[in-house]
């Protein structure tokens, strides 16, 4: 079940995200302090996937196995940047990552974002497949983006509101061409007189 991270007990959220960060990302994991700072930073939205039946905001979360996944993004007023997404190893390939990503996209739309941006390690084929399934496209490559291992990352984007620059509807462009042709014919006729 997906819940808003900010409705849960902060100490539990920080400890559980920190635990999963270590499990999933090893040397590149966020420290507990980094997780705390990220959750306190402005314009952040975070979601948690917790086991059914343990999402009461009045009961503290105590069981370390209740958190199955987490994800969050930053909204700058135009774009949303996915900061992190992770699913516990024993819960992967069950649709939890898809559910979290879907919830972030829906929340990004509700906040008025034009697109969603992210970075993903180039050899993370599962994540790449997930993002491509949702319509993300590769923008470029960031060399040695993930530290300390020095792994490269693809930057990817999902357009939520298409930007139309210089767009002319097909019918209008046809009529303009016809008008230009008519004008050219008129000028040629005038010059022949």
From TrEMBL:
Please give the SUPFAM superfamilies that the UniProt record associates with this protein: Acyl-CoA N-acyltransferases (Nat) (SSF55729)
Q: Where is this region: Disordered?
A: 174-193
Q: Write the Enzyme Commission number(s) for this entry.
A: 2.3.1.128
Residue ranges of every copy of the N-acetyltransferase domain listed in the record = 1-161
GO MF annotation: an example = N-acetyltransferase activity
Q: What EC class is this?
A: transferase
A cellular component term from Gene Ontology for this protein is: NatA complex
Coiled-coil portions: none
Q: Which GO terms describe its biological process?
A: mitotic sister chromatid cohesion
What keywords does the record list, in alphabetical order?
Acyltransferase, Transferase
Alphabetical list of InterPro entries matching this protein: AcTrfase_RimI/Ard1, Acyl_CoA_acyltransferase, GNAT_dom, N-term/lysine_N-AcTrnsfr
Out of the domains of life, which is the source? Bacteria
Name of one Pfam family that matches: Acetyltransf_1
Q: Which NCBIfam families match?
A: rimI (TIGR01575)
Q: Which PANTHER family match?
A: N-ALPHA-ACETYLTRANSFERASE, N-ALPHA-ACETYLTRANSFERASE 50
Protein name, as recorded: Ribosomal-protein-alanine N-acetyltransferase
